Amino acid sequence: MNLYALSDEISRLHPEASALVGAPQVEVLASLAWYLRQLDSQASLALIEEAEYLITSGSLPEDQSRVVRSRLLLTQAEIAALTRDFELAEQLLLAARAGFVLQADVTGEGDSYLVESVLALEQGDMKRALSASQSALSRFEQGCELLRILLAQAWHIYLLAFSEPERARKDLMLLVSTNELKHPALAALIAATQAELLFTTEVARSAVLYSQASELAQKAGLIRLAIMAACNAGVALQKLGDFDAAATSYDWAVTRARKTEWPLMIAFSLMRFGELLRHLNRLEQSQQVLEESLQGLIASNHGIHTAIAQAELGTTLLLRGLPKQAAAYFDTAIALYRAAGSRGNLAEHLISQARALSAAGEPMAALMAIDEARQLIIELSSDTLHIDLRVALAEIYARHELPYSFEIAAPNLVLHFLEEALIVGNGLQGWQAPATLLLSLAEAWSAVQQGKKAFEYAKKAIAADRRERNKQAENWATLMQVRHETERAKADAIHHQQMASASLETSQTLKLLAKVGQEITADLNFKNVCQSLQRHLGSLLGAADICIWLITAKSGELELSYCVEGGVAISPTLSPNENKLRNAVLCIGQRDELVCESDVSATSSQANLFGPLIIADRALGVIAIQSTNAGAYGERERLIFRSLCAYGAIALDNAYAHDQLQKTQDQLELALKELEETSLTDPLTGLKNRRFLIQNIENDVALCIRHYQLNPNDKNRIPKDADLLMFLVDLDHFKQINDKYGHAAGDAVLVQIRERLQQVFRDTDYLIRWGGEEFLIVARATSREIAADLAERVRLVVADKNFLLDGDLLIRQTCSVGYACFPFVTAHPRAVSWQEVIDIADIALYAVKHSGRNGWVGLSAEEHAWPELLLCTLKNDPKGAILNNELKLATNKTPQLVIDALTKKQSIN
């Protein structure tokens, strides 16, 4: 049983649940309930009830029933957590985990920790959520289930993105670089993590990634993540000013959340939607939506989510001119923030409370809230809140005449605090005064008859407004670009899928045509051949009618020999249609297929396809088929039709049977070969891809191992060219080329890299585009003694000659090379797989990239090294392996720098 299931798997299980009986039925019901726990919680609970009834009825043996019951309890626990019945969820979770532990089911135990992580998130306990996800990963690693391990890693990194973004960024890079599995759940978690990490720096890309995460999560059945990601996509789109797209995202989230009946998801999506309505100045609707959001959380009046909802509603009420009601909501929010220890939110909303109290005619209470906020801001070192606090003070003193005991240089307190806000902001790196602050300063100086200063600030306000509008336009452009890139990536993925599908379809068609050809040519009876042609043309091409004309020996003219229309055989003595006969004559005269479609104005559309029956230069006759669908006969259909015409001709003239069969098969096999070649080639560089390597390297590995195993005690008898040398080449600072010159320039460099690598390596070596700007070269049948020389040649061929970009622009580019040789331990050639050798080359690449780049590092084993121990030491203590003479280091860098880099990698791991 997997963690999540796609729609195909769920669709397959539904009929099985009804068709099966006994133990198999119970297991299918339990699987379905587990897979539907987020997709349709109510349906999942109904399936659990049915499974429990069958278990109670004795449909399962006792030991098997304990396993299934544990899974059912865990499913109920997650649903209870999502419906915020936390006490029940905790009880069910403990009972389920106890069952898994009793059965020594580490996979089930790991699943229980992932459910605990969801429960902790619903309770607002991020620390517990992180701990639970780490425990899940530990259990999955014990069970050696790769997909679950990757999903647990991705989930843990996703949670880290909210609390430790730098650590999350490093862990995510490692996960993405080492993972080749493509599963929607995994892709959704990766996209959501990337979106969160980019939210503050690349909001447009974050918006697109969050939207992708939501779509992928829906496919995988991760509905909670899908709703959260859709809401976060809406926040990013709102920040970009794309309010229509934000509203669409929120609308989907609200609709899907209501369907789940999960209180937190409903409240969260409504809260985001209410915030958007407030931004659009639809304050009354915003109040209604936020009140509904708060109502969903009020039953459990604790936690950060309730506090945020209270504060959002307070903000809307304040803008509606209802300061007393707003202050009451801010009071509740502040109390909840204090209880949760959320000091940043507390400081922000103390300022909001001060504004509400001031507007409600309670200036002294407002100043007390400001004083508490000021103290928190100082403790938190939150410079941006310092600015907002001073703006709020200016608003308070503008509204009330209050005594003060401090000296001011400005004409009044309003200007004093606004000028202070500007001074604080100007002291922040990258801060630019917003138009609203500058306009407030212009109005305040104008009010004290300082026209010159007011005019200066007014001009600055206009410039700031223009800058903000330009920034919004820039954000829009970035969003459009990211969307374009995303759609292009999707189109490429669809294209590759179509190619793979076409390759499979061609292969299947080849096999089928071979069988059809055997059937047709095995029978020399004319009627049987015609009936066989009719049957296969109908099944392969959907032909409703078929006519066969043969050239008579006496007259040399076409004569109808076989005809079926609408499933009814027509006597050859009755001519079917004069138009068909004329087209048949035209077809045999042209000796080529002829497609005739009905006019657009015809009452019923149809298409006719005529094919000549020809052997060598001798024409035998014509086959015609008809479809009721206009445009039914494309290139693929004509190719199949041409094949069947050839088989038909062979059946009528057996002397040419083998020749025609071979030609037809050769043509289709060529198409298959071309498609296969395309699927094994990187479209940009023309180099081979990973799939090509996986298909071809095993023979090289087997030959290499054979050389070493045949001569285990006599090294002199081992050929010098018995090794496989594996080089990983990475272009240094390649991202800077894309950022500075554009992706077209980056593509040009990648293409030229292919040409330079071909200068170093032989045509028989494998040159693979490994991913992005990284290349893998497998030098086949080569001595490991020349590995260092080859690495240096690669470095030089990249670094010594500038790369030519469009417009005759020349740039310099360097690369880093890491290499290792197979077999890694020559005394034990099978002990370290070729994939692990590539991983070792990757460690070497890491070392050179963290030793100044533009160089190479090679790692090889000493002859006396023990493989299993060396692999473990290499990953955990490479420095120790080198110093203990278990591992040899070759490099053009300072060895100590490389060893330090390897030590750094160990500490990161």
Automatic annotation (TrEMBL):
One Gene Ontology term of the molecular function aspect: diguanylate cyclase activity
The protein's enzyme class: transferase
Reaction catalysis annotation: 2 GTP = 3',3'-c-di-GMP + 2 diphosphate
EC number: 2.7.7.65
Domain of life assignment: Bacteria
GGDEF domain span: 722-861
SMART domains, alphabetized: GAF, GGDEF, TPR
Name under which the protein is recorded: diguanylate cyclase
The organism of origin for this protein: Undibacterium parvum
